[in-house]
Amino acid sequence: MPSHTVKPGFGYFGKVPQRGDFIQAGLATGFANGWSEWLQAAMAVSREQLEESWLEYYMTGPIWHFAFSANVCGEHAMIGSLMPSVDSVGRQFYFSLATPIEHSPINFMLNRKWSMKAEEHILQVLDDEVDLSAWVEATGQACWHQDAIQPDASLQVLMNGDRHTIVAEPASATQLLHHAYQQRFGRYCVWWTNGSEHVPECCVISSGLPLVSQFSALLDGCWEEWGW
Predict the structure, then answer these.
(1) pLDDT tens for residues 77-93?
(2) What is the DSSP string of 121-141?
(3) Which domain holds residue 44?
(4) CB 111 within 8 A of CB 147
(5) 117-157, pLDDT tens digit by residue?
(6) CA 27, 63, 72, 180 torsion-angle sign
(7) Are strands 77-83 and 11-14 parallel, antiparallel or unpaired?
(8) Could you tell me the CATH number of the domain that includes residue 108?
(9) NCBIfam families of this UniProt entry (predicted)?
(10) Global pTM?
(11) Domain-embedded: residue 181
């Protein structure tokens, strides 16, 4: 695939008010299975941790956007958005948009117009009057992430040590940040949100998916309390 193009379309997974069960399409099995298992475990543990406060934190929780390295959840690097939702009888579960990428996740964290458009789009499923069939069609054709693409030239690392890294020029800030995150976190995840009642606007970097015991912080913003 040429470096200036991306595959169009986002997949989706989770619960929406118009349906009585999970809906899913357009996502690789490896990602969908791993994502579902992690979310179910994270929700179960956060319910235990937050007890009677859980429902309020969940229902007022922010939309989180993410950009993952390859092999964090499935074999591909991924970007997407995660929103608290419910099904038609009020059972809580997140709804997600996601798509694989062939560029460094940092591109999509630094160039966030796509996530603003994704947030506007995912919020539409909470509207009682949404035409879900039309929404699904638009999701499969969306190219919001096209604007975030920058050519991914290889970074030539001349020397790498505990206290220094030497790279050949030219080297972009995006390349250097991607390299630094790989060195620090390995398979890294970047999360960001515009905030909510309990969580301030912020950006979070984790090594792999957050531990399920840490997930409550994405709901209540109490990072230290939940082991971050």
Answers:
(1) 999 999 999 999 999 99
(2) HHHGGGSTT--HHHHHHHHHH
(3) 11-149+186-220
(4) yes
(5) 999 999 999 999 999 999 999 999 998 877 656 655 565 65
(6) positive
(7) unpaired
(8) 3.40.1730.10
(9) VI_minor_4 (TIGR03373)
(10) 0.88
(11) no
